[in-house]
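User: Is it possible to get a 3D structure for a protein together with its bound compound? The compound here is nicotinamide-adenine-dinucleotide. I've pasted both below.
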Amino acid sequence: MKAQPKASHYINGRHVEDEQGPALPVTYPATGETIAMLHAATSNTVELAVEAARAAQPAWARLKPVERGRILRRAADLLRERNAELARLETLDTGKAIQETLVADAASAADALEYFGGAVAAFGGDYTDLGGPFAYTRREPLGVCVGIGAWNYPIQVAGWKSAPALAMGNAMVFKPSENTPLSALALAEIYTEAGLPDGIFNVVQGFGDVGAALASHEAVAKVSMTGSVPTGRKVLSLAGSLMKHATMELGGKSPLIVFDDADLENAVGGAMLGNFYSTGQVCSNGTRVFVQKGLHDRFVERLVERTKTIRIGDPLDPETQMGPLVSKAQHDKVLGYIAIGRDEGATLRHGGGVPSLQGFEGGCFVEPTIFTDVTDSMRIAREEIFGPVMTVLSFDDEDEVVTRANDTEFGLAAGVFTRDLPRAHRVVAELQAGTCWINAYNLTPVEVPFGGYKQSGIGRENALEALRHYSQVKSVYVETGDVASPY
Ligand code: NAD
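Assistant: Yes, that's possible. Here is the predicted structure of the complex:
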């Protein structure tokens, strides 16, 4: 299996190789085989990319928003036309099941390009009547923006960052995760084909040092990063020391609260989606499932029954529902947490092991795992595992569960399952999380802002919020009379 791109980087509308850079091998997580060999960028390549973006951005910003939007919408159409091949590429790069990458990856990036391509033409400043004089505001682009991606949704992250940035008249240098470098290159080719001027979207590969070089580059006006909290802290301080704008989309340990009166099948389905989709590698996952005591035992019984039917295996088989984790390192980390959960005294109700799959012996597979009898202080209930490991906790009443749900440094997302809608709204209003779902979980349409409270991040992606975060406001005061000068 090979997925070798034409070159490692994409700068100024062209493929660029930089053989001086450290080797960056790409592995298929289902088998461990090397599918591509790339190079990380050297500082020369970083300079080339930033310079290309800097040079191209002013002319791009002078186009009418509707003209920029037209190019983005053309690129959205190309993403959708090539969805099948992009899904295959994403599956090879991440190991995620093809039945997921066909619907959740390039398709989600296309949604962002389409949405921002349309919305930007209606996004503008304000007018203020000052009783004769007046003022208006202009929403202006920031300049060169840097995007730094995580490995769980590579092309989606590239689309969610580049679409609002470009629509608003910025240029972008995007660095994918070193684990999943391939699909951002495909997106860059598609942008060029759709008519994007050279230099407006550039891709450079690399490890954390390349991300840091970009985040601290003096020609860069904004950094938008998706990744873990510890990395976010480093990137934010680099950006902050140079007064750059920043958006941080970071990790979580989100609560999913199931009250006694919830629809059992929907609540179980929501909890499974919010823990096992993408092999559990979703930032907003509801990994602390609080179930009220009256429903707890029936919930766990049905959860285990349904989890037993999950089909793990060949990610390219359309029947497969769960692929491997992204890398050996992530595999070790998740298995380590499962061992910690056992040691801490939680009950392992399902999974916990490595499935034996013929032909995939070198893969990073782990069974969907359910722990019950979990208490709030256990590490498996406090730390982000980023794998298919669900912890189930029980509770008595509403006030108690709200307090326990909020007792975390994270605040990315939360969910509530109940038939009592006044209670659902009351609870959601108390939850410290940037995105909350009522009787649903993990749906993130582009029309709705997405981002974290507390340590889970700052800024928002998606919706008009994202255009605000990729622009700055200029206030213009206009005098219509004489200048009232005392001198
Ligand atoms: P990570 O923090 O290890 O890496 C993220 C990116 O930052 C990578 O591209 C990496 O190369 C880069 N990086 C690392 N060190 C850097 C440095 N010092 N300076 C600049 N860049 C640096 O995260 P990951 O393991 O790739 O992704 C998993 C994490 O991402 C999880 O915590 C998950 O919750 C989070 N995530 C958040 C969202 C969200 O929208 N909130 C979405 C997906 C994933």
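The mean pLDDT is 98. Residues 133 and 484 are 12 Å apart (CA to CA).
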